[in-house]
Amino acid sequence: MAQIVRTPSRVAHGASAALLLTLLLAGCDQRSTDPGLGTPAQFSRAISLPDLHTQLTSGPARVDVRVMPGGLIARRIEIKGADEMKRPEEIRSRVTAISASGDHGTVTLALGGLQVGFTASTTFRPDDGKGEDGGSMALADFVARVQAELAAGSHPAVKAQRSPPTQPQAPGDAAFTATQLKLDHEADHPVIKLNITADNLITNQTPPPDGWLKVLGLMIELRSDTKLREEMPDIEGEHEFEGFVQSVDATAGTVTLKSGTVIRIVAGTEIEGKEGESDEHLASLADVQAALTAGKTVKAEGEGLVTTATPLTIDAIEIEFAVEEADEVHALPPTP
Prior knowledge:
Elements: H1 15-26, E1 44-46, H2 49-57, E2 61-67, E3 74-79, E4 89-101, E5 104-109, E6 115-118, E7 123-125, H3 139-151, E8 157-162, E9 180-183, E10 191-196, E11 201-203, E12 211-215, E13 218-222, E14 227-231, E15 239-249, E16 254-257, E17 262-264, E18 270-271, E19 281-282, H4 285-293, E20 298-308, E21 313-323, H5 326-330
Parallel strand pairs: 3-14, 7-9, 17-21, 18-21
Antiparallel strand pairs: 1-14, 2-3, 2-10, 4-5, 4-8, 4-10, 5-6, 8-9, 11-12, 12-13, 15-16, 15-20, 16-17, 19-21, 20-21
């Protein structure tokens, strides 16, 4: 089967890129992701802790770690495909403090008190629902915005990214200097996407917990209910998407973003769940529709496989829906 290449989100606006993508798609068998055919799309499979150890012993790998809010307990860990190791490493978390001196500074995260550095070379972005096509902010404006939200009692959050180092970072090394910092109001579910080795995995001979994943100096617990998964080897070329939801078709299982992108919820799609009464995440298309009907603004973000170039249509591998708080929406620039 022809592989779906990873493309930037602006592919739908480039005629030549769209033509190339269309030609690639023409040779693909889409049966595994077509909900109408009744065959569940298997994007990943469950693995055990020994399986995880075996995978890491065979060589470095990119892991996607979802951490339960308020602590250092892994809710889910997924080993990604080899192509993911070249993509930016990422941390998402609420912010507890930010400071700057001249052209550099640090953001302190709720995630284990981790500190993310930034410099004059860091790109700063608002949470405008436009992904990589969104606007940018000056360092001073970004710092002032976060400080103002903290002072007002809000809970600002960021998505910090950096280019992956040549070799995976040592487990006890907490250094992380962001090449991009983006406001991310859905980051109440902390995430770490990092390249690791077997040195990062520590098993416990006297559980609980079953073990720990030591990354960036943090000891993240692996418990009996931590979901361990491995991405299927034929899943390549994931396309990240982000945007505000325009409409929902629950019967067809689709979500249309204001940009015109269509996201298909297929049998294998994982929808980020709701954790706690204060969690603004929506766990189903019915919940998304109810929020839109109530006049709320809903943001969708995730990754999937492109199936059609025009309109850009994506089968979601994983997706999260979250209601934007009123003060967050008012702070955003208009969305075309």
